[in-house]
Each structure stands twice: as structure tokens, then as C-alpha cells.
Amino acid sequence: MLKVGFTSLGCNKNLVDTEVMMGLLAEAGFKIVEEEKSADILIVNTCGFIDEAKEESINAVLELARYKEEGNCKALIVAGCLAQRYKDELLKEMPEIDGIIGTGEIDKIVQVVRDAAAGMRPELVTDREFIYDHTLPRWQSTPPYTAYVKIAEGCDNRCSYCAIPGIRGGYRSRPKESILQEVNDLVRRGVKEVILIAQDTTRYGTDIYGRYALTELIQEIASLPVHWIRILYAYPTRITDDLIQIIRGEPKVCKYLDMPIQHVDKDIIKAMNRQGDREEIMKLINRLRKEVPGITLRTTLIVGFPGETEAQFQNLLEFVREAKFDRLGVFTYSREESTPAGMLANQVPEEVKIKRRDIIMREQQKISLQKNRQKIGSTILVMVEGISADNPEIYVGRSDADAPEIDGLVYFSGPALNPGDIVQVKITDASEYDLIGEV
């Protein structure tokens, strides 16, 4: 029995692809292992979104290649976005690679692994229309109480800086029946938190139902025995009245919304080929906070977009101070070939981009600390994740205001608890990103 080890890089959408590939291989009789040194086959599911992610992917391939000498590795396979985008370059420049499979071929991973193990150098990067469904096996790599569910694949937004449509193809919603069956299967396995993901969750259903159908989907998921439903990657101008109402009124839906904004200066937004402006976005934020009391709002921004002036950056910084997001991340603009923005001449120097990112993040730290301190004395629901690595007497968990990996944590004391338990925690202290409390 051949042993297969995986490294999954990039976003949680990529992680779902990794879990499907692991499920297919396990079903075919391969053994999935965590220890890279013991694996006969190593697979890297790469990210190719921005320069930093591409560099991380290349470094991971080179790092794993050493197990051909130091371990049992007989073949190293590169999958995912980097493979889809740079197949020819990877095969030419990296002899360490023994096989390559793109984003639209993950259902064929078993054959690719067999061919690579047999000494062939398979390359399968053709289709971009594939999307997994509930009939495919899935090896869950997240904790047993939480799982991501990809409700759609690809993107039609065509933001001028983004290469995703070229990598993942056009927007393709999964039928509700398939999603509901998958969620039902996950719940039977012990999943309590379902996190809905796509490049744009708010567009869900427009291609197959002719209408925005995210709210209908959430209503049906809420009828299943799940505890938390979390929504990520909502496009701001597609947040409908119905969506706001279900976030407010359905107890199982986390009062949490991730809506990447990227920028608020009208000229930058136009150059990004995005919709909305500062006034519209601020109006939406105020409405969300009014209609969904206590809602946690998360966003991401891009600084250093081509042509961004100091005045335009200051406009963005002032917006951050005004909006006071609960959670905020900042990317420096990454120049991507084959994108309209990548061909613009007025690129911003890297040191300026980094400086602008750091300025916003320092501002956000102050906002986050202020907001967290306001929670001292309150009692919140927390999902137990385990024991703190620093103190065996302290538990660590997440509130419904915290998405896995990207948001803060809650550290607390209490009686004997198990991962996945949901408990009431009284907050006694706070830092910029984390909370401290007791059951």
C-alpha cells in the first residue's frame, strides 16, 4: 500500500480540493499519512494568486523534494493553482516535479498518482470547468467539529488585478441538493460549524437558478442539525435585504460577515473594475450594524494599486478609521501577468506599498484593541478548540465572531471540556486580537 502525504497551501477553497483528493486516494486504497518523510508520494496543492503565495509554493516543492534523498519519496506531484497557471514553466524549470495536475482535474488524482509512481511524468492541466459534489469522498483535515463547504467555483467578477478567473474559470454554482447532502453528511460525522465559501458567495445561484439564492440555501442548511453557519467572501454590492434578514433572524447563522472591499477611492475602484464607492459602502456598514446588532464585520483591503496616490491612500486610511471594522486584513498589490492592472505603467514602488500596509494595520490594531476591551464583562459563546500550548490549564477556542485561522482566539479557564463543545465564557481581559475569560 503506497503512502501519500499532502501539503495544502493558499486559501480554504484550495483546502477543500485537497480534502477531495485525499478522499479519492483513500477510497482507491492509498494510505494518507501526515509524516512527510514516510510518504511514498508527496503532493503539494499550490496557490498561484499573488507573488508571495507563488514563492511559498515553489519553496514548498523544493523543501519536499529533499525527501527523495532523506525519506521514502518516489514521486513529487504539484497540484492546484500554480500548476494550472504555470504548467509548462514548472515542468521545464523544476526537474524535482514528477507529475502535475490542474485545478479542473482533481477528480483524476488517482490516475496521476499511479502514473507518477510508475515512473511516468503525468501532466494533466486542461479542464477548468470541474466542481466537486457530494458524490466524491472527502477526507476532512480540519478539526472534526468544523468544515468548509464550497458552494461555487470560479469567478465572473473580473477585477482588474485578479488572475482567479483565468485559473479557476467562470462562476459555477453547485446545486442546492448537492450542498445539502454534503452538509448532512458532515453533520453526521460530528461537524457543528459549517463555513460557506466561494470566490463570491453572494453570487450563488445566479448561473443555475437565475437569481441570488444564497439566502434560500442558508435557510435549508439551517433546517439541518448544525450549530453555526458562517458566511465568507460576500461581495458588498450583492448583500441583499434577504441576506441581512437571515443573518439577523436565524439563530444558527453567525452574526459575522466577511465582505472584501479592497478600496474605497472611486477612481481606484473604477480601475479595479469593482463596484460601489466609499459612501455606498459606509451606508451598508451602518445598515448592517443597525439591523444586526452586535454583528462582526471583516474585510480585506489592497494598498499600492497602480496609480494609487498619497491622497487616495489617505482616503482609504480615513475610511478605516471611520468604519472601525472588527476584523481587517491588508494585502500589498501584487502585479500579475495577464491581468489588466498588471499592464499599467504607473506601478507603486514596493517600499511604498509595504509602508502603507503597515500604517493601516497599526491603525487597525488600535481599533481592534478598543473593540475587544468593550467586551470585557460580557458573556459570549465559545467553541472549544483544545488546550493552550503555553498553559495546560487554559483552554483555547473561538467565538462566533472568529473564523478559523484568520481571526482571534479566546483563552479561558473552566471545567473539563472537549474540542467542539460550545460554552458560555465571561470575558475578563483583552488584547489587540484575543480575548481572555472563564467559563
From TrEMBL:
Entries under Gene3D superfamilies matching the protein: Methylthiotransferase, N-terminal domain (3.40.50.12160), Nucleic acid-binding proteins (2.40.50.140), tm_1862 like domain (3.80.30.20)
One MF annotation (Gene Ontology) recorded for this entry: aspartic acid methylthiotransferase activity
Catalyzed reaction equations: L-aspartate(89)-[ribosomal protein uS12]-hydrogen + (sulfur carrier)-SH + AH2 + 2 S-adenosyl-L-methionine = 3-methylsulfanyl-L-aspartate(89)-[ribosomal protein uS12]-hydrogen + (sulfur carrier)-H + 5'-deoxyadenosine + L-methionine + A + S-adenosyl-L-homocysteine + 2 H(+); N(6)-dimethylallyladenosine(37) in tRNA + (sulfur carrier)-SH + AH2 + 2 S-adenosyl-L-methionine = 2-methylsulfanyl-N(6)-dimethylallyladenosine(37) in tRNA + (sulfur carrier)-H + 5'-deoxyadenosine + L-methionine + A + S-adenosyl-L-homocysteine + 2 H(+)
SUPFAM superfamilies: Radical SAM enzymes
Domain of life: Bacteria
Claim: Transmembrane is one of the keywords in the record: no
Residue span, Radical SAM core domain: 141-370
Cofactor: [4Fe-4S] cluster
Cofactor note text: Binds 2 [4Fe-4S] clusters. One cluster is coordinated with 3 cysteines and an exchangeable S-adenosyl-L-methionine.
EC annotation from Swiss-Prot or TrEMBL: 2.8.4.4
Binding site for [4Fe-4S] cluster 2: 155, 159, 162
Keyword Transmembrane helix included in the entry's annotation: no
Family: Belongs to the methylthiotransferase family. RimO subfamily.
Job of this protein: Catalyzes the methylthiolation of N6-(dimethylallyl)adenosine (i(6)A), leading to the formation of 2-methylthio-N6-(dimethylallyl)adenosine (ms(2)i(6)A) at position 37 in tRNAs that read codons beginning with uridine.
Protein name: Ribosomal protein uS12 methylthiotransferase RimO
Biological classification of the source: Bacteria, Bacillati, Bacillota, Clostridia, Eubacteriales
Gene label: rimO
